[in-house]
Amino acid sequence: MSEPVRKTWSPASEEYQSILGGLRESVGACMQCGTCTASCPNWHAMDVTPRAMWRMIQFGMLDEILESRTFWMCSSCYMCTLRCPRGLKLTSAMAALKRLARVDGSAAARRNSAFYEAFMDDVEAHGRVQETSMMQRYFLKRKSPTVPLAFLPLGMKMLSKGKVHLPSRGQGGVLKPLFAKAREMEGL
Amino acid sequence: MKYAYYPGCSLTESAREFDISTRAVMERLGAELTEIPDWTCCGASAAEPVSELMNYVLPARNLAIVEQEMDGIDVLAPCAACYLNLYKVNREVVGDRHLHARLNEVLAASGLTYGGNVRVRHLIDVLKNDVGAKIVEQKVTDSLKGMKIAPYYGCQILRPYPVFDDPGKPVSMEPFITAMGGEVFRWSMSNRCCGASLMVAHPEVAVKSVAAILADAEGADAIVTVCPLCQMNLEAYQDKAVKAGGKAVPVLYLTQLMGLALGLDQKAMQLDKNLTLTPSVRQDIKTRAWAVPEPETDAETAGMNG
């Protein structure tokens, strides 16, 4: 095997294998027509086109996949899924790639998944998302003072319109047993 | 018409005007909404990137409560993401024995189980198929005559599951706009994605989408939405989008505008909460500024007579 080819088949841990295996199954029937790329409203911000990404999954090119920012740019609009002539769940595949990258845990993955994690942490804590506490969690995860500053003007505007509400107990920890059970079953 | 009402988190936070107007309008139209007791978050589009299982468990918990405590009546969700998440449990889990068993294994940790017998409906679906535009037309007291209204559907109410309308060319809001006396503004961006939560992590990407949507709405007196995230993105980032080539257009929830047409006042519909509704826009709505026909110029009159 030549060197570059071997690189694309870098050994993957068990966790990677299970997510990658599921992904390969979900896009295995992709025939590379490119309708997904043509349908994506965020293609301009992606470094690898969605069509090429499915090919990389079929080949198991883990390193290249994890280096890409493509899946982080998916806004879950489902246009690719709707139009896929093979009926593949492409939006779910993008979400699975986000999960794969979280297992990888690179700095980029931590930054890009900060919003999703902050959202889910808030759900686990209160049962419902409370926007102010969720955004606080997000800012803490981003560890950069410029991030909250960028939201300051909007925050003030929303405050003046009575759209900002103080965090409350919400539904409390009613979802905690469910989160714990799912974690146990998914091994995450 | 009885529904198990699922407001969703946004409608208890920054989108309270959507919750309040939905309840008021549905009551006027003869629908009885009962809030699902102790409902919890559906996971929006944040659950799937974190946990595959929780992505189904979070919405299913609410359906399980409806199934067990509310005799399994139809669920009504006004928010697009809540609707899709609740709906996809029935589509993707029920019928998949392995996944359904795993789901119930998690739910059992809270003493719940979901059998798959609850129908999930979006607000537009209920309006179109259970209420009908005719009833709205009969109840209109304050016609929106002359107002050019651009219906904005967004993504998740018809994608990937087109249940009650054509996802390529949605029209389900149009009869209601006409029933209110308004004029449907024809545009091509009515089902274009607003960027959703990318607006938080990658605003430079989402602002581009919002700018394109707002540019296409040029000439409309208002955009109406049925999604709190669409509303937030189109309203709160309008300054930035205008700098990127968009046009400033007032954005309202469909239910707010329906409330006004059905005789409820601006205060009851909380129009002061909308970020794009400046006092002058609210004045225009109040005085029905659009109903006044523009004066014809001499040249046009001459041309028509000649």
UniProtKB/TrEMBL annotation, chain A:
<dbReference type="InterPro" id="IPR051460">
    <property type="entry name" value="HdrC_iron-sulfur_subunit"/>
</dbReference>
<dbReference type="InterPro" id="IPR017896">
    <property type="entry name" value="4Fe4S_Fe-S-bd"/>
</dbReference>
<dbReference type="Pfam" id="PF13187">
    <property type="entry name" value="Fer4_9"/>
</dbReference>
<protein>
    <recommendedName>
        <fullName>4Fe-4S ferredoxin-type domain-containing protein</fullName>
    </recommendedName>
</protein>
<keyword id="KW-0479">Metal-binding</keyword>
<feature type="domain" description="4Fe-4S ferredoxin-type">
    <location>
        <begin position="21"/>
        <end position="51"/>
    </location>
</feature>
<dbReference type="InterPro" id="IPR009051">
    <property type="entry name" value="Helical_ferredxn"/>
</dbReference>
<dbReference type="InterPro" id="IPR017900">
    <property type="entry name" value="4Fe4S_Fe_S_CS"/>
</dbReference>
<keyword id="KW-0411">Iron-sulfur</keyword>
<keyword id="KW-0408">Iron</keyword>
UniProtKB/TrEMBL annotation, chain B:
<dbReference type="Pfam" id="PF02754">
    <property type="entry name" value="CCG"/>
</dbReference>
<feature type="domain" description="Cysteine-rich">
    <location>
        <begin position="3"/>
        <end position="86"/>
    </location>
</feature>
<dbReference type="InterPro" id="IPR051278">
    <property type="entry name" value="HdrB/HdrD_reductase"/>
</dbReference>
<protein>
    <submittedName>
        <fullName>Heterodisulfide reductase subunit B</fullName>
    </submittedName>
</protein>
<dbReference type="InterPro" id="IPR004017">
    <property type="entry name" value="Cys_rich_dom"/>
</dbReference>
<keyword id="KW-0560">Oxidoreductase</keyword>
<feature type="domain" description="Cysteine-rich">
    <location>
        <begin position="151"/>
        <end position="234"/>
    </location>
</feature>
